[in-house]
Amino acid sequence: MKFSFVAFLLVGCEEEFLVEEPTGSTRNIRQIGEAGEVNPEINGAFMTGVYSTMFSSGTGGTGSHTDFGQRGYDVYGDMLSGDMALSLSTYGWYRAAITEFQAPEDFTQQENYQVWRYYYRVINRSNLVIESILGQPQPETEAETMAIIDELTDNNRHIVAQAFAMRAHSYFYLTQYLVNDVTASWTSPTLPIYTRAGITGNAKSTTEEVYNVIEADLNRAIPLLGDYSRPSKLEIDQSVAQTILAYVLASRKDRWSEVVTLTNDALAGTSASLMDTSTSINGIRGGFNNVGSQGWMWGVDLNEAIGVGLVSWWGQIDLFSYSYAAVGDNKAMDESLYNSMDANDARRGQYLNNPNSSRYLQPFNKFYDSDRVVFGSSQIVKADYVFMRYAEVLLLNIEALAKSGSPAAAKTKLEDFVAARGIDPAYVAALNGQVLLDEIYKQIRLELWGEGKSYLAMKRNEATTVRGTNHLSFVGVPIPYNDERMTFEIPLQEIQDNNEISDQN
Fold first, then answer.
1. CA 1 to chain centre
2. Which distant-in-sequence residues (6+ apart) come within 8 Å of 353 by Cβ?
3. Residue closest to 101 by CA, chosen among 389, 471, 446
4. How far is CA 131 from CA 9, 117, 194, in A?
């Protein structure tokens, strides 16, 4: 993926837009829309601006070295779920705020602000794209919206579909990170909704109302992307949009048959496939640093033009990058989770299995800069970011089959999956009921470690986390999924700035 100068220029202009009040925003949106009519590349450049938020540092509004886009919040989720252990802390990143739960219990801490600011920034940028294409103000009814979309060029139709999908993606993550229990909070006010660019200060809507926006956006996007051939894996295509909706419905825990259908369609429609057990670009010991991996459905090529460096996911996690993981802020797989792996599981080799080493269970064979030089390059150009993989869609499909009344089909697919990881699948036949669900949940955690999906699985499976002995705090303490320590708070800054929100609950 390459970024043009005009794309970066427009992203810079957008930052000015973000801080304007609604009157100025209306003028800017109209100007952007008019420019888009003259130069079709304008709208595409603004969509690039939406995607750039996912991998740029500071997009959570801070100078923190944990503030680097979507993968930064993936780390938060992996640590809160307990699957990622901070096994050694020298510089203190994540120590108190995340692994000791200070941020989820104190709305004045900036980690709450980062989560809030990042996802609402993506929402606002998506709204800008939508309004620049559909017009400002946006049409009020679905029929009016679709009538305008029907008149769009193919290019603008695909762009607005991606903007709908990205807006939905951000609202979904807000419901996961900011709502203790989606089901219990279904009719309670939880989050403000913004479907207009630049508007601020809305009151909280109910969780149900937020989900209605999410589903409406994705149900628009999915058919609009049916004939879309994306230029790179950075852009959302139909299979990615279907998977996002599958995650949304799975989090509701009452529409599993629809999750089956969506994941079946996503798997059938993607060109990706399951990664093998080799050390090649398509293998589980070699395929996590290159967006070209056959196993990746959604990701970004981190090249010199993007300029990702020390403040990055790689810097925080990878032994072979010039940053924290190499010099004493070790992130490792939870020891209990590692020990739950079958002796023949090929994924055991992804981690340094030497209990006498300070780097015990670091993912040195799963995630690594391809030069494999400890404390190596300070600029990340030989390691990319993954946002979605074929394996996660397959595992969500297996989970949905088991939960929708098709355990036999779930077991057949689970047998094939574990066999592809080097495990004798014979044990699967005897699994039933909760034992089967527990095994599927475990396989999700093992397969997707470090990819930000364990937190989502913990929430929808209503799991209780218990940290293993290689964590620095709360070892052996049972913490349920809906515990206050598992969910961020509406930040102090929002409460101070938004007169319609008076508290963090």
1. 19
2. 338, 360, 361
3. 471
4. 19, 21, 12
DSSP-derived secondary structure letter, 15? H
CA separation for the pair 52, 262 (Å, rounded): 27
Describe the chain by its helix, strand, coil percentages, rounded to 5. Answer: 50, 5, 45
User: Which pLDDT score, from 0 to 100, does residue 502 have?
Assistant: 85
H or E element at residue 493: helix 492-497
Is the Cβ–Cβ distance between 78 and 408 less than 8 Å?
no
- Beta-bridge partner residues of 386: 299
Contacts of 12 (CB under 8 A, 6+ apart): none
pLDDT digits (tens, 9 = 90+) for 338-384: 999 999 999 999 999 999 999 999 999 999 998 898 987 777 878 99
**Residues whose CB falls within 8 Å of the CB of residue 124, separated by 6 or more in sequence, listed in order:** 18, 194, 197, 198
Q: How many Å from the N-terminal Cα to the C-terminal Cα in the chain?
A: 41
Among 314, 449, 440, 313, residue whose Cα is nearest residue 372: 314
- Measured over the CA atoms of residue 106, residue 107, residue 112 and residue 114, the dihedral's sign is negative
Q: What is the mean pLDDT of residues 149-170?
A: 97
C-alpha closest to that of 219 among 205, 234, 238, 200: 238
Please provide the size of the chain in residues: 505
- Greatest CA span in the chain, whole angstroms? 65
Structure tokens belonging to residue 399:
């989970």
Q: What is the pLDDT of residue 199?
A: 85
Contact 300, 434 (CB under 8 A): no
Residue 330 contacts by C-beta under 8 Å, 6 or more apart in sequence? Answer: 86, 87, 88, 358, 359, 362
Burial class (CB in 10 A: 0-12, 13-18, 19+), 157: middle
What's the one-letter identity of residue 480? P
Cα(223)–Cα(215) distance, rounded to whole angstroms?
13
- Tens-digit pLDDT profile for residues 371-412: 898 987 777 878 999 999 999 999 999 999 999 999 999 999
Is 5-280+388-497 a domain of CATH 3.30.930.10? Answer: no
How do beta strands 296-300 and 330-333 pair? unpaired
Q: Outline where DSSP puts E strands in 118-207.
A: 189-192, 204-206
Residue 390 in tokens: 């074929």
CB 123 within 8 A of CB 135: no
Strands 330-333, 204-206: pairing kind: unpaired
- Of 73, 295, 29, 67, residue with least CA distance to 169: 73
446-494: pLDDT as tens digits: 999 999 999 999 999 999 999 999 999 999 999 999 999 999 999 999 9
